[in-house]
Amino acid sequence: MSAPDKKPGKRWAIWLPLVLFGGFFVLVMNGLVRPADRDIESAMVGKTLPEFTLAAGSQERPGLATDDFRKGDVRLLNIFASWCVPCAAEAPQLDQIARAGVPIDGVAIRDREQDIARFLARYGNPFATIGKDDISEVQLGIGSSGVPETFVIDGTGTIRYQHIGPIMERDVQTILAEVKKAEAPL
Amino acid sequence: MIAETGLALLWFAAALALLQLFASVMTLVGGQSEAEMGGVVRPAAIMQGPLVALSFLMLMWLFIRTDLSVLLVASNSHSAKPFIFKLAGTWGNHEGSMLLWVTVMALSGSFVALVERRLPERTMIATLAAQAFVSLGFYAFLLFSSNPFERLPTPVPEGNGLNPLLQDIGLAFHPPTLYIGYVGLSVAFSFAVGALLTREVGPAFARAMRPWVLGSWIFLTIGITAGSYWAYYELGWGGWWFWDPVENASLMPWLAATALLHSASVLASRDALRTWTIMLGVIAFSMSMVGTFLVRSGILTSVHAFAVDPERGSFILALLAIYIGGALALFGARASTVNEGKQFSLVSREAGLVVNNVALSAILGIVLLGTLYPLLTEAFDTKVSVGPPYFNPVGAFFAIPMIVVMAVGPLLRWRRDSFDRIAKALILPAVLTAAVIVGAVVLAPGIRVLPLLGLALSIGLGIASLLPLLGRNLLRTPLATWGMVVGHFGLAVALFGMASESAFSTEKLVAADIGDTVEVGPWTIELAGIEPVAGPNWTAIEANMIARYEGGDPVSLHPQSRNFTQPPMTTSESALSTRWNGQLYAVVGEEGLDGRWQLRLWWKPFVPLIWIGGLIVALGGALALIGRLLGDMRKAHQVRRIAERREERPMGGAMPEPAE
Amino acid sequence: MSRILACLALFAAMLSVPAAAQDQLPPAPYAYRQLEDPAQEQKAQDLMETLRCLKCQSQSIADSDASMAGDMRNQVRLRIKAGEDPEAIRAWLVERYGDYVSYKPELTALTWPLFAAPLVLLLLALLLLRKRFTRRLPVGEE
Predict the structure, then answer these.
(1) CATH number where C41 lies
(2) CB–CB of C11 and B163 under 8 A?
(3) Tell me, what's the ipTM?
(4) Nearest chain A residue to B300, by CA
(5) Which residue ranges does the record assign to the Thioredoxin domain (chain A) (predicted)?
(6) Has residue C116 been placed in a domain?
(7) Could you tell me the pTM of the whole model?
């Protein structure tokens, strides 16, 4: 065996930086053209709702607990707050969904009763129950990272779908379809 | 008119850069007729600096006058802002900071064209061609997609204001310092490209490039140090380094420049590591550009809807592809024809510097990989976060051997040495390192591994770094040697601060009534009162705290919670009390329902050493730079004298070349 | 470091979303309060420094003023107080938010290159450098 030739050994290494840069380029190019997806999806979709009991956030409605989601009907769990501006924007759509016969349970994040009352008086009250979550316990429990967010929960208490951000006009049909889907057991 | 003049100056400078590129390319491909077109190259380069600087002054003027008919001023300034922040507002936004970038680039181009006369003229013209080519891209970026001088159709009555977090004296000096560092590396890049184009890679190239690398590196060091301190006192949680993508973007060029600095000195003194030095020259500025891209494109700024401008992102990415891709392709094509240079023994100064280079490059690779990794997994629809639990241990994996070699390397001779010769000198630092380990484990059981190693190695390195001065006449020791000693010592000081902060900080979060006393570490702090105060564009509540160190003299601290209206935002202004052995850090938060105030207090032993060490490192760089420049001047003088003598005695025999 | 630039981006975000409203509730009990047992508090602190604030930009929950970060600190401290293992709490959060919430990457099919990288770099360096060194310089050379 002769001593290894220096040149060929060197050559591939010399192109290594360019190859790595090529990889970098493809990577960031891909990152630039992909629609910026900044949402943090919950990993709880498909899993069972965690145990919780929340006191009522409004005198007009009772509070809620996990057991309320195991009674056989598909429900929406809406994470909202009176201090959150997009939550006001989704109020008409929530109303529309409620009128379509889907019960909606509200979880008010870090909110005061008087503020919730004012919010409901102003933007309407589509909620069947309203729970007060003062320490984001339910929010953390179901993997929600902001307000508003809406979860579809089936009749056995399993989380079936998550919608991040306000429900806009165009999202209503999607949500209703997801509710329909959730009526069939997994 | 001011805005229009500024814009016209920019266009003029861009045209000159085009001329510079054209003339230098013609000279390079046209062959011998260097005199015809080549004569244009330097003047074209020299003129750009003042032109762009003037343009930058125009923008500053617009900000100082708060000219609300200019879009950039209207969206980033406010007439009620204090003067210094109006001024700093010039570069506290995308367009203004890009203009600053181009200004620094043009000034460096001017300067290098003006003073650098040692390289063969052909290499110099190739270097200036590369500099013009790079500048043109940034001129285009500024003029076509980030025009700072754009007018509004109708002036607005009031500006939007500047983010309160940025209304701080730290902002006034931090970005310009970093930018000088980032952009100064473009000259090293151009030298590397010029050397590749003309195949002139040798000690002369390294010597020409070295002051630029050193200069940029000094500014980067100061910039990173200042930025870390700014984050420390401004963000209000006592953290000084977060491995945030934006921080990493400034660390990566520094790592590359540090490696380049060391490999360039091997090349300059020993004519070894030729291809490696060239590659680092390309990489260092590439890292500046990559960092800028990552920050500007918003591609890594994660979480919740950010206003990202994909057009700008694509523009910078295209520039990256042209410059970095082009330079690395040139490197691939040419580097195999460059001889690697001289070999050396496993125990030698060169070998030490090689270990340093490998470690720095590996840390650079790790930081780059960790920063980009979330982007990579996102392509597979998975989001991950890479943070301190990854960077700290993996960084230490390379940093620890590097620190050990840093202690030993400077004592070794070039080319070939033996450990036996230096073993005696190293006994003291080795013993002390071991003693610190044992002592810390005994006195502070439960200390974690990294802070423990950091403490011990910092002591060892601190002593070992001074050993090269041993037995020398300190007055006759070259400045460059002093620079190395001071720089390495500064790193030991910073390391000690980091390790101490990490190992010995104590934290106290309390809700306190007025009159309550809180203890944190050796301090006793009384909350004496809470007062409302008002500034030029904010109102605040200010706590009056009376702190005593071990029952000693009272020190008063006044942390604030500031409310800005333009734009609306609350910031915490921490209050610091510095002693020789650490810093007390106090923050006042909100008032609770029970009327008690949220206080956050930290005692951080020796934490100021982090930044003092950083500044000592920069000082070491400055000493080395001065030493090199003086040496260069002395040598130029010698060369001139010899040339003169030759003219006097044309028949004289071969003159000896001046020694290095 | 040049967090300034990060803050600029944050600032831009705030301008584009005027909905940066704040809630009025006081922070959760353990958001700004330490655990009584210093050893437990140390555990909680170490864990919090490696959990990502979901609402902020690149900050851990240990150094964020966001109210959700406060609620997360409350959860962490309560669970530590109840005797839960820090890694179990991390797993609990990862179960809800995915790996994103943890700054400590787990070794998975997708992340192994992160952990292989240091070794690859080391091998690469050895491979490229082995020819640079001479065992012994011939006497009298140079």
Answers:
(1) 1.10.8.640
(2) yes
(3) 0.85
(4) A31
(5) 43-184
(6) no
(7) 0.91
